[in-house]
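FW: tagging you since you asked about this chain on Friday. Here's the raw sequence from the shared folder, copied in full. Didn't touch anything.
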Amino acid sequence: MTPSRKAPRTGSRAFAATWWGQAWVDALEASTLDAGRLSRGRTYARKGMVGPVTTTPGLLRAEVEGSAPWPYDAALHLRVLTGAQWETLLGAIAAQAGRTAALLDGEMPADLVDDARAAGVPLLPEASELDPECSCPDWGYPCKHAAALCYATAAHLDDDPFWLFTLRGRTKDAVLAALRTRRQALTDTAPETGETARGRGVPAREAFASWNGSFTPPAREPAGSTHGEADTAPSPVTTAPPPGAPFTLDDLEALTRDTAQRARHLAAGHTASLTSAPLEDAVRLAATGIGEDWFHQLVRAAGVPALDFALLVRALRHGGPAGVAVARAPLVPDPAAMAAARTALTDPDTADDTARTARLRAWRNRLTADDEGVQIRFGPDNRWHPYTREGRNAAWWPCAPATADPVAALVAARTAAAPR
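HL: got it, structure written out here
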């Protein structure tokens, strides 16, 4: 059974901060479940009425507060994958080394989900396969308690994408063990020619040690470490740079981590960063959580005001590259998407009680509630990016993760704008 964690309380954050968590929410809302009950469930989840959530193969379960003095026992069933489907999925993961590394780093590769779906292996729930149940007397499908459980699950998926694998039938340990077996089999059967041996190059640690002639290999992680597989985990750089080098050991470690992350993404087929402009690359580096000194150096190198640079960094963290595009300039959106969003936000029949009817001003890809100081922007990724007014100049700043639901985006903006 996976460790449980309390669902987020009101105003702590939106249901999902990652694309795969939001994809769970999007799949839920596109399902055949009762839309009205889902709306009530969203409210329950935002109010923190969902207790600790646990998952086992094919089942989510939690106690959910309701009108009774005691909580109800809510559950959600999801079909587990067949043995053949698991073989296909594991093969898709093992085919690209970057996918295993990404999962161990707490990320779900988007291309893995797409490739698995194309091969007939659904990771995210399909339209008609979510099966809720609850101990309450409500005959809704789902009842609001089970619906709240569905929404609260998105936060857990944010923290550990392996929850999806557990729901589909295999725990994290079982998946990693199967991948290690596959990787070892590939290594044992790979032919080694003279050309292959000559083309291997020199290990990075040895190459770096040759700069000053000394190197002490770091101790291997102890067995049972939670940072990954102890026998394959990369060791940190420990040798100081040569005397007079224009960088410090901390600088080198930060660049090494960034290089490893980019290499992993490239191995997984994500090549967009190869064509990044200098400003985009500086923003990407700053968004990784570098120190203050590095931040100011990147601001100077980018040649933009510090506040403008900080805005782009926050936009990248909340919305990815599309978030940066949304922050840099107004866009011309699809009129139908804008019209659908305004309908959802202003129609009492479609906007739930948390997303109360809004007075909105539309301009290009932006919907603004001036009297509330909140705004949502439609991005090239077909998601809505929440904004609030901040600072002495009351400038617009991104404030929460982007989402495909304009109602959820507006709620997130209002939550961020609410007095603390």
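FW: Residues 1-13, 193-200, 211-235 have pLDDT under 50 and may be disordered.
HL: agreed, and Residues 366 and 377 are 4 Å apart (CA to CA).
FW: great, closing this out.
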